[in-house]
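Action item from last meeting closed. Structure (319 res):
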């Protein structure tokens, strides 16, 4: 292996730059030529490939977003788009590709592996919905953003005796909502993986107000999909004004936490080292305190589950 290329694809997450830095500097340490791709698979199809050196990644570890930029490329999902991307890889004599992103990104590199290109995936998604890694890059930073928002809104909720609903990202995964809700000490957490009963929730909240509680915070994962309807139902039942706050893209931005910088550095370096061993079509992930590589077929075929024990803990602590 002489030349490798690195790209970021899909939604951005804090820590992607730290991972890019680790890939580039680890590759250079091992005597490889390292290239970057701008705008993910779209840039690969269009040939936006350029050489990178130590200076290319200087001063980026603390920055959010991705210096390589990112996109979602529908064309890449077609045979024509895949062939065009493969042609560019061959034009630049690329031997290995490191893709930083989520499940959509990994489905792309799985296709490349089938065509003979050595590939390695680095998990970076605030949804934390990939199996075979305890944490993906960006999750910890996003959780801190959610927790900070809960703390601030709780001050206002107490002052005005209102119920506040906070919608967080996560697509069909409730991880951010569950962990952020536990850390923020909220009263109710609704996630798509576990069913809920609104009449029971409203009764619980009403009992809390009768005991003297001055506020109520409810965290809802966006995958639940009924935030405003839930807000209206609860307002009618508990008799308090209800306000909705949708955190949205705030959760993706900002300087990555120390945890995310360390995780991204370890995963980026490991991706290059596994390529050098001749491995392909794998994702490097954090399992316990170890970095391990898992076949992409396994990663993409096993949905990540929410811990029922953690959800039960949230219920107990909210009483």
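Sequence:
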């Amino acid at each position: 292996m002489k030349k490798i290329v690195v790209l970021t694809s899909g939604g951005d997450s804090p820590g992607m730059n730290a991972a890019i830095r680790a890939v580039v500097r680890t590759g250079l340490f091992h005597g490889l030529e390292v290239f970057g791709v701008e705008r993910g698979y779209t840039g690969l199809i269009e040939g936006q490939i350029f050489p990178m050196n130590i200076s290319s990644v200087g001063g980026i570890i603390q920055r959010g977003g991705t210096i390589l930029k990112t996109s979602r490329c529908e064309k890449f999902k077609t045979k024509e788009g895949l062939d065009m991307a493969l042609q560019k890889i061959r034009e630049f004599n690329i031997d290995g590709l490191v893709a930083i992103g989520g499940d959509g990104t990994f489905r792309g590199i799985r296709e490349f592996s089938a065509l003979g290109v050595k590939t390695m995936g680095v998990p970076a998604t605030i949804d934390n919905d990939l199996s075979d890694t305890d944490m993906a890059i960006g999750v910890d930073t996003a959780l801190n953003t959610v927790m900070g928002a809960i703390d601030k809104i709780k001050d206002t909720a107490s002052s005005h005796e209102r119920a506040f609903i906070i919608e967080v990202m996560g697509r069909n995964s409730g991880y951010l909502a569950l962990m952020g809700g536990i850390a923020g000490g909220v009263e109710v957490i609704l996630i798509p993986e576990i069913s809920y009963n609104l009449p029971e929730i409203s009764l619980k909240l009403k009992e809390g107000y009768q005991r003297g509680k001055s506020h109520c915070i409810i965290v809802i994962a966006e995958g639940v999909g009924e935030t405003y309807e839930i807000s209206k139902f609860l307002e009618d039942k508990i008799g308090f004004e209800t306000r909705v706050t949708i955190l949205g893209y705030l959760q993706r931005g900002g300087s990555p936490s120390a945890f995310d910088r360390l995780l991204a550095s370890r995963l980026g370096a490991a991706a290059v080292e596994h390529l050098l061993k001749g491995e392909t079509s794998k994702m490097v992930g954090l399992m316990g305190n170890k970095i391990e590589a898992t076949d992409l077929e396994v990663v993409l075929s096993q949905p990540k589950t929410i811990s029922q024990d953690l959800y039960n803990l949230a219920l107990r602590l909210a009483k």
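Note appended to the action item: The longest strand covers residues 3-8.
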